[in-house]
Amino acid sequence: MKTLMTGNEAIARGVYEYGVSVAAAYPGTPSTEILENIVKYPEVYCQWSPNEKVAMEVGIGAAIAGARSIVTMKMVGVNVAADPLFTVAYTGIRAGLVLVSADDPGMHSSQNEQDNRLYAAFAKIPMLEPSNSQEAKDMVGLALEISETFDTPVMLRITTRIAHSLSLVELNDPMERVVKSYERNPRKYVMLPGNGRLRRLVVEERMHDLADYTETVAVNNMELLDQSIGVITSGISYQYVKEALPTASVLKLGLTNPLPLGLIKEFAAKVDKLYVVEELEPYMEKEVRLLGIKVIGKELFPPYGELSVRMVSEKISGQLGITVAPAFDAPIRPPVMCPGCPHRGIFYTLKQLKLVVSGDIGCYTLGAMAPLEAMDTTICMGASISAGLGMIKAHPEMAENVVAVIGDSTFLHSGITGLMDVVYNGGNLTTLILDNSITGMTGHQHNPASGKTLMGQAAPQVDFVALCKALGVKRITEVDPFDLETVKAIIKTEVAAPEPSVIIARRPCALIIKNTEKPLQVQDCTGCKMCLKLGCPALSFDEENKTIQVDQAICTGCGLCMNVCKFNALRKAGDA
Amino acid sequence: MSKIINVLLVGVGGQGTILASKILTHVALAQGHEVKMSEIHGMAQRGGSVVTQVRMGEDVYSPVIEPGEADFVVAFEQLEAYRWAHFLKKDGTLIVNTQRIVPLTVLIGAANYPESILVDLKDRVERFIELDGLKLASEAGNAKATNVVLMGVLSQYMEFPEESWQNALVARIPAKLLELNKKAFASGVAATK
Description:
The structure holds two protein chains of two kinds.
Chain A: E1 2-6, H1 7-17, E2 22-25, H2 33-38, E3 45-48, H3 52-65, E4 69-74, H4 75-91, E5 97-103, H5 117-123, E6 127-128, H6 133-150, E7 154-159, H7 160-163, E8 165-170, H8 186-189, H9 193-216, E9 221-223, E10 226-233, H10 236-244, E11 248-252, E12 255-257, H11 261-270, E13 273-277, H12 283-290, H13 309-317, H14 344-352, E14 356-358, H15 383-394, E15 402-407, H16 408-424, E16 430-435, H17 464-471, E17 475-479, H18 484-496, E18 501-506, E19 521-522, E20 539-542, E21 547-550, H19 560-564, E22 570-571
Chain B: E1 4-12, H1 17-30, E2 34-39, E3 49-57, E4 70-75, H2 78-84, E5 88-97, H3 104-107, H4 117-124, E6 127-131, H5 133-140, H6 146-155, H7 162-172, H8 175-191
Parallel strand pairs in B: 1-4, 4-5, 5-6
Antiparallel strand pairs in B: 1-3, 2-3
Helix pairs in contact in B: 1-6, 1-7, 5-6, 5-8, 6-8
């Protein structure tokens, strides 16, 4: 039976079919749906970890103990997980271990565009790149096989267009799920320098063996057609090449670390003009050049953004394609904080108080957008607190002017150590933890503070107050983010206090609560437009009648705008 | 190369473009087409502009539709029709739900919602269909069925048998909402007559 699946669904299906027993991840676009689909196969134990490093280590432990395991993350997550990854490449595993790196060329929802193929080369682990959903599923099986044959973790590298595109997949019955017995082997798994030096040699031998294997593996193959043009490609770029140049010869590479150098030489000798078509870094191109082979690559294609059929066709043929009518000038429609979002009032207040805001990653990063515009920096998960500390160490006089803002899931991911540093090194920083009881931006995944696991089990909840206290924070206040007056007063007091402080603004995400409030009504609006400064999509101004109007279909009745209106023009239904 | 049909479904997060694309792909698969579909999400839930791309035919490689290559653009909202109109082929068909969802940039006064959208589109696009899908869906029983109304309209311009569309509705829509959605689909069909 064939069915349409996204690459992410197909990987989850592969996990089910190829006997994986343990799966761990931290959510991150475009990787999130892999675990969200694995949970549909109850045979596989799966979990959200607090961050990617922890997920990686859970996978490593399970694989060393004897269970086929998979760990999934977005590309920047691999930065977080890189520490254990580089060393498990030395130890190897006992049962298959696959790391899925979901890269995001074009930065559809990411803060950078790093090409994680370089990680596979850097960590010296084999890497597979599927070009559609069927291959994504099949390569889970192949990755596990390579992992166990060569005693190494394997990277399965996908991109957004693989993760989020649907194509047909043949479904098979699952193989038997076997967990091997645990075998103690400290020489292999305790990476003291003496043991590590021995394993270091094993890594080189393994890459040597893999270099032979990659020459003959079925996923690396030549499609010889018209030999005047030859293209070396992999992943989604293969699809663009096939459509743009249906008659060209193609060397399609599925196992791209190590690259099949012999096969590349053979292919290069068969074609008149050789191209490498790959998104982002000239990863394959550089290897081809090292062989002394003349090749055309990044002089035609940019090292940033996504490729396309048209780009491949135009660059290689040298001819312009069809002319396209210009786009109309349409105002942008960026994502916004939802009506009823508990974050909105916080950013409204931060803007009012003109504070320097060291920001972080989550829905609340939207606080950087107009009209709130209350964020000065956003670098990576967890950076808000530590970067805020850096700011006040650079400018001690700024201490009364800087706050760090971080969500519950991000704080648990990598904010705790930053807060520890604030206390330890005496930074008078105020940290706001925006606790909406869920991991919001990626689509509502549970976390260690939300009370539930990925598999639906009830779980203990992290107590943020107790945690901050244990880190040594003495000033901790809790506040309802809808109570703007109190929010403002507390922030003013805490920022002025000459010691570290934490404000926990607590209210669940507007999308997860069952809302019983009625939409607000407008009466006797003076047209001052003060409420529009909240940037709520439910509020708009009727220029003709000079009055605010409330979109009855989307207003949640949260009442935040009532707090801002000085003329009592916005009211709860029935309070006329 | 065999003919590939490209359909672009555009709208605002929450308008049901994904369900519509599932109905469409169901129909295409039933005709024996190869189908590829691409969606970009992640931040879509937060009221941003959303696009789903469906490609069908023999030997479909890329899952992505490029400017000037869509046979059909089905816009669930006026401004989104405006934003994506240049994706249409010269002789492509543009179906526009005339509903307006005002983006935040306009709400806060940082931009204007263009008043000339429908006129401009009509000017440029020969095969242009506009309808108040929201009203038709409400009349059929639920404003949320606007997506299915639009599939009813689309069905009249694509060469797939009526029966396939009906089968797709049965396969893709929960039983208790099926009657309502069949009505919505029928009103979309009727709107083109």
